[in-house]
Amino acid sequence: MNIIIVGDGKVGYALAEQLTKENHSITVIDKNELALRKADETLDVMCIKGNGARASVLIEAGIEEADLVIAVTSRDEMNMLTCLTAKKLSKSIQTIARIRDPEYYEEYAALQEQMGIDMVINPEFAAAQEIANILQFPSAMNIELFFDGKERLIDFRIQEGDMLAGAKLSKLSGKLPKNILFVAVERDGIAYIPNGDFEFQVYDKVYVMGRITGITDLFKLLGRYIQRVNTVLIVGGGRTSYYLTKIIAKLGMSVKIIEINQKKCIELSETIEEAIIIEGDGTDQEILDSENIEEVDAFIAMTGRDEENLITAMYGIEKGVDKVITMATRIRIPDIMNRVGLDSIIEPKMITTSNIIGYVRGIQNSRGSFVEALYKIVDGKAEVISFIANQSARLLNIPIKNLPLKKEIIIACIQHRSTVTIPHGNEKIAAGDKVLIVTKRSDVIKDLNDILL
């Protein structure tokens, strides 16, 4: 596909990097010459300096032959105008806009219709949703919901003394809760798709698919089940904090937000009635102690600086908070955070990139099985892809145990009408079913037929 990316910041660069790996033709537009130089020197992309909302610049970028425009500049208005201009120049073009401001995002459905935006992406809202999911099941490091929340993908780290440590997966089948499936493992930065002979080790990061009841039973079996979260302390009063408070307040959680900027505090107090707003430096241990950090159920570090989040979150762990979550915006920071014991790490850039890549694969494969959603796991080394099977799929009505699956691919879940199943061999996939697959293959999976030999 021919894709134009307007905005060469962190998200724009990450998108260009991933989409070029998937053999798309990419043109990047930005007014920042330094950012363009980095993309030009490190990626196989065409770079144009200019205002991506201007018709002349889009024409220079090849809008007539383009299939998709992705507007991810730092300004919502610029992104919306870029998509509107693109639609005026090409009737067949698809558009994606990053819209972050709550005033715009809360009316995004109307904006989509009025401005012809095909997909709206909001990194802060997506991050808030992910954090809210974790807070509803704090035993897990991270959690993703599938099939309207009927199935969940969680990850956790194996500890010394766990029944999993040193055990082969095939030897555990009778000891573990039913209707859960081990779909991936990360060990020393390497992703594995486990089979029956796979032997778990201490410090492995394990990804498990299952219903909430089965996953709860697993954590109780491991002695690591954490009761629900009632009180939340947040450091940083940005957009993610706003969206998160709106979500979790409806779930009955009590929220405090510490923000150092007085103007932001006033704005938050006027827009968030559900939280207590405290003006102060949330990285100051005395302020955290004065707010009784050791008594809260969950502590979330979401300042604008990764280093401050890291230090603040470490203090939360030191004070014995059951659930500590932190945000990371740079590539290498999550590795550092993991090494110091921080496991629940939210990466808005990774969430945004995954959502857009899933959309791109969906429109690219319009005749095959539709890509409904895509998630990156194991630090981007593996993917979870949700397909809707259609008549073109060669695996219909064949028992899964008889399918010639490629290596390093697992069928993790099937939804047939309203019934969701973790497959164990005899299940069959029918047209219209939703199928969840997990893969660590280097080749791109765009269609259900791509998982077969």
TrEMBL record:
Please provide an example of a Pfam family that matches this protein in its UniProt record.
Answer: TrkA_N
Q: Which InterPro entries match?
A: K_uptake_TrkA, NAD(P)-bd_dom_sf, RCK_C, RCK_C_sf, RCK_N, Trk_Ktr_HKT_K-transport
Please give the Gene Ontology molecular function terms for this protein.
potassium ion transmembrane transporter activity
Has keyword NAD? Answer: yes
Is Ion transport there in the keyword field? yes
Q: Which UniProt keywords apply?
A: Ion transport, NAD, Potassium, Potassium transport, Transport
Matching NCBIfam families: PRK09496.1-2 (NF007031), PRK09496.1-4 (NF007032), PRK09496.1-5 (NF007033), PRK09496.3-2 (NF007039), PRK09496.3-4 (NF007041)
What is the designated name of this protein? Trk system potassium uptake protein TrkA
Q: Which organism is it from?
A: Candidatus Galacturonatibacter soehngenii
